[in-house]
Amino acid sequence: MLKVGIPRAFLYYNYYPLWKTFFEELGAKVVVSDPTTKKILDDGVKCCVDDACLPLKLFHGHVINLKDKADVIFVPRLVSVRKKEYICPKFCGLPDMVVNNIKGLPDILDVTVNMRSSPVSLVKAVVETGKYFTGDCRRIYRAFGRAVDEHREFEKRMESGLTPLEAMEGEQNRNFNEKMTIGLIGHPYNIYDSYSSMKLLEKLRARGIKIITQDMISGDIVDNIARNFSKPMFWSFGKKIMASAGYMTENRLVDGIIYLVAFGCGLDALVGDLVERKLRKAGIPFCFLTVDEHTGEAGIDTRIEAFIDMLERRNAV
Domains in the chain, please, with CATH? Predict the structure, then answer.
């Protein structure tokens, strides 16, 4: 049985159930890299260019972690996953960076997905990927249909209040002390990776705080809000972050919002400023947290504690 490796980084938190179902339906065994550790980060830092963002360095580390565990590693070249929108440019060159920066890799399953103009690219990518395992196109389409069904269920579970990891593991919604609710926004690979985020989500929940992330807000709501932007936001993640923050604010769903970003992300630098301006006008407290491979956990903890204390004093008035 062919082993397909999937790095636990980047869009793993968005599409893993879809990829897993697709490959398993084609008879492959899916192998996922270990949760992020200091070694995985250090390995990625050593082989990646210095000015790369933290998530990109982590991705390299996760590929290295899979190097001796899989027969082929899945590294798609994602240009766009929605019409008239783009993914961050680093996804476009990801397969090339991985192949040139890491020696001794198994086969890299590299397919291009560019749905900016038409969904035809996705169909081609699905067939190209499936043919690595079988020449039966009907089997490939059937496998992808089941994968899409699983992905829809995955999104529904998140919209019910679960994080991607909880939705993947089939957990149930928890009861939280709703005296305080905080919105947590940012790229999924930043906020859900416990190591790089310094366990931010877990620390907030340990205080009994209810968390709402952008992934818990339906795509229809995001699209409806985005239509009212003064200009179209053509970055998929940027649109979702801005629209989700707007939805939380307009409906007074949260007491404050934390935006977790990786240092050096140009998109987050722009979107963060736009979000902060909107929240200030609405009177919603905002905390902008930046992390990289040098960030100390004590500093993050201090800022989190100060933000929570401020919200508690504000709510007590």
Answer: 3-158 (3.40.50.11890), 176-316 (3.40.50.11900)
